[in-house]
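Batch manifest, entry 17 of 40.
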Amino acid sequence: MAADNAKSQAVGSYTAPSVAPELGKEQRRRIFRRFITNTGVVAGSVILLIIIVLSLFPGWFATHDPYLIDVASRFQKPNAEHLFGTDNFGRDVWSRVVYGVKISAEVGFAVSLGSSILGLIIGLYASYYRTLDHLFMRISDGLMAFPGILLALAIMAMLGPSIRNLVICLIAVITPHVARVIRSTALIIREQTYIEAMKALGASSTRILWGHIALNSISNLIVQASFIFVEAIIVEAALSFLGAGVPLPTPSLGNMLIDGKMYIFNSWWMTAFPGAAILVLALAFNLFGDGLRDFLDPHTTARK
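Output type: structure tokens
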């Protein structure tokens, strides 16, 4: 018995030899090479960088006040003064698109962050405790039984149109989906041999959940967050288009679409440019998410 205890202590106190600096440099080079050869990640990252700069400093790029009404300049086609033309109130469409991208990015980031954190917490505890699993998953099933846009409309009808309420609404709609993904990932990790070994050694549930299962679920969560961003942007635009999202006259992309729908044949630029902005936002995050999934997936890397 004493010999076994001494052996376990010796094994527990074993320290792995340090990796040579040359190996670390080679590993970093390999990771960087994988990153720059991943077209989706690179293309998405470039577009996202532009979107981030636009969102942080919209005043640098907007040529006019997005709220300024100039009746004499109504329905002007794209020209040197108004790059994307003007709308039915004479407001500069380019400036409103810039601020619309800012609002969409803010809503997408807030929803992605909030739903990822809540989904991670719910998914982890649901995967580890059977009682919480039944409770959380039945609530998730009830919320997911409704189409997302209808559930969002119902929640916004209760809360009222505002950006804060819109973020709360989208977090409530999207969190069950994230919790499902994290739960399925955590259930697989929980059955691994090293988790069973930690339980046998008396490790606490908190340490196992957050020190190991959560850390091994982060890669899936990051990829999921990029797709949540896209979903939040599209649902925000749809709700604003239906009059239940960002309140007027805030220059959101959905509000710009609803302003231009009556003039789509005579003033096509009022809907074409906001729609193109939504398309670029969705494309950028889809490219980034797909590329990031391939980048983080060890099976894809092994095949390559």
